[in-house]
Amino acid sequence: MLAGNRERHLPVSERTGGAGAPPVWDVVVVGGGNAALAAALTARHLGSSVLMLERAPVEMRGGNTRHTRNVRVAHDAADEFLTGSYPAEELYGDLCGVGSGPGDEHLARLTVERSAAVPGFMAAHGVHFQPALTGTLQLGRTNRFFLGGGKALLNAYYRAAATLGVVVAYDACVEGLNSTGDGLSGVVATVAGRREEIAAHAVVCAAGGFEANLEWLARYFGAAADNYVIRGPRYNDGTVLQALYDAGAASAGEERGLHAVAVDARAPRFDGGIATRLDTIPFGLVVNRHAVRFYDEGEDLWPKRYAIWGSKIALEDDQIAYSVWDQKTDAEFFPPMYPATTAPTLPELGAALGLDPVVFSRTVEEFNAAVVPGGRFDPTRLDDCRTEGLTPPKSHWAQRIDTPPFSGIAMRPGITFTYRGVAVGEDGRVRREDGGVFANVFAAGEIMSGNILTSGYLAGFGLTIGSVWGRIAGRGAAEHAAGARS
Amino acid sequence: MQPALEAEANRQLAICNACRYCEGYCAVYPALERRRGLSPADLFQLANLCHDCRACYYACMYAPPHEFALNPPALFSEIRRQSYDELAGRPGRVLRPLTKAAGVSIAFIGVAAVVVAVGLATVGKAGLSSGGHGPQSPYAVVSYPALLGLGLGTGVAALVLMARAARRYWWGVGGGAGLLRLAGAFLGAGADAGSLRYLRGGGEGCDYPDGRPSAPRRYLHHLVAYGFALCLAATAAASVEQDLLGKHPPYGFWSVPVLAGTTGGVGLVVGTVGLAVLKTRSDPGPGDPAMAVRDYGLLFGLFFLGASGLAVLGLRTTALFGTVLVIHLAAVLTCFVIVPATKFVHFSYRVLALAKDRIELGSGGSAGG
After folding, report:
1. Residue among B30, B59, B66 minimizing CB distance to A148
2. Structural domain tally of chain B?
3. pLDDT band at A21; cut points 50, 70, 90
4. Contacts of B11 (CB under 8 A, 6+ apart)
5. Considering the entire predicted model, what is its pTM?
6. Domain assignment of residue B3, yes or no
7. Whether ipTM exceeds 0.95
8. Nearest CA in chain B to A146
9. Contact at CB, A150 and B36, closer than 8 angstroms
10. Distance from CA of A197 to the nearest CA of B (A)
């Protein structure tokens, strides 16, 4: 229980019904994560009365932000926490390098340009930073880490929101949007079990993607979705996104666009977060259900490649794959949360993992035979340990798997968030299918990430999108509300 | 260590070690990251390195009601409690009943009776009822050799027991030997402990009592710790005045012993009351109820020492002097008797854990916080 929140636990109407409470809120923010908070704080600074409707109970507030740890932003120079400069041009180049590049180049450039101001906004609202975590040094120049991670950032933001007078309703599920044709007059929500009509001059939708809606996923991925692990909370079921579509919002982003990583197959179905992901892949081999390799495990530095493995595994039979390594590299990576399966011989490991031991041993032996001798293993850079004459190759960090005990872990695709959402303009206003824009509806965060991301992912960029667009949406909503009031 | 607790610690800390978001808060998480597989000794070390600032609990997305149910502060409190009991050994088990409310009351009355009896035997009836004409000397109630014998006997016994337990801790966690090597580590550990470096949470103070960063706990702890140290210094100063300078009590208000004792006593009283008030308001989520009982016990004991000491000073010109002196002496001696089985010992394990951490980091190294 987080103290200081108890009074904000009341149903909204108990605080809105009294004298002095606005009959119409200037800005209603739907959501409770980073983007929602950036919008709420920004709107409140501009003088709006702001109500946040967070679907989760207070202890679980914050959506996917709970599981984040850093934000990728452009900066001119090294500082106490970052090891070097990261010019906007380089960030934009990195963004173009993932998947099929940005969805809307103008909006992507805008995101990159505005990213530089994000750390200042965070620090001004009580967020503390720290150097890159041990084992993530490759992100030390580009990504700013939050002291204590995403939930600590959320706690700081919620404290700032309370101080500024943003009203937060928890257990507040928005079920409908009251459409006026070219905008919204408010929202319909169930707050702590009670149905409420909440009127607003402007609405910011920052309610995340639909990754926790398994039926929705199945529409695009079929039965494979049954084997996906959802890394964030079960609240991100796309209710608000669907309501926006129903009100006539235009969609942006690809149906199958998402950020997915390799997670332990034993992870809980929902909300397992960072602890269930595996960083073992570049240190060994990955085989599929048929005990056969299917992708270059050493293609590039891990922070640049960790985000492709979820989708790679999703394409294999039964959406499962096995990371295997030997004793030599056992201490190189973050120790996995769940213990690895270990065995003294390769056939025994294969059998213990439920694979055909003969095929598995042959796969490893073929790999071992293809390792070019004499390489110098160095996990911090693209080293010269590689295979020759093997398909697919292992381009870096290829060491023979020959030192018992041998270890392995089964992996599933772990979905962080979906990209398909609503289309927005550069002021954050949600665009309509008929070609117009909603006058007073704004979107920020994962719900509009499809404007920028198509496929693939850049570590820490989800928070960048949420922070930049939360501020844009919050400003737009506050300015619209000021106009509507007068 | 209880196998169930050891298993639960390994379950929770495997998740922590796979996450690592908290490594910037304190020395515990970097120390965890240096280990693979946690022995009971490792758990004792991590638990005693933990200052219960609770920053990690509030930053943790896996804290209850999440199904991973991570709660490192409560876990470490429970392990610390077990480490105190295990390391105190048989003497600790014998003394433990005396640390409970009923036990300590009986002990106190018993010790008070001994003090009175010794006073009667060495000075006589007049001592106890003396007073009312100027500041009194304690030796007007109990003779100096008798008082010295009582104090030294119980005090040395307590020190020996605590030193044995500390030695057991040090060898258990693999602290090792070597004067130069240890000197640097213990100097650093002393600075870390003396400044309560790891009770700063995310920088603005620990998340205590209610999940928001705040500084008072650290300052109140300083009042108690340095108040206690001043009381010890007052005793030492009195001994210097008496045995080296030949000046016998009573001492004037502006003398070193009285001034140090008064300041220290006020620190103890204010600090313990403040910490107890904070504790009553503290979030039970990251707490260990059984440790909280011991915390209150220690706070009460230190408060009683401070308050009775101040009463002796305040009443030393009145007819009540004999009575309050007996109460204060009985309090001090009772504390000496039971201290190896109380939360007081957290001080020595904390310093040892910090020193071991310094050694792991390489002498003079610094950890996350």
Report:
1. B59
2. 1
3. low
4. none
5. 0.94
6. no
7. no
8. B21
9. no
10. 30
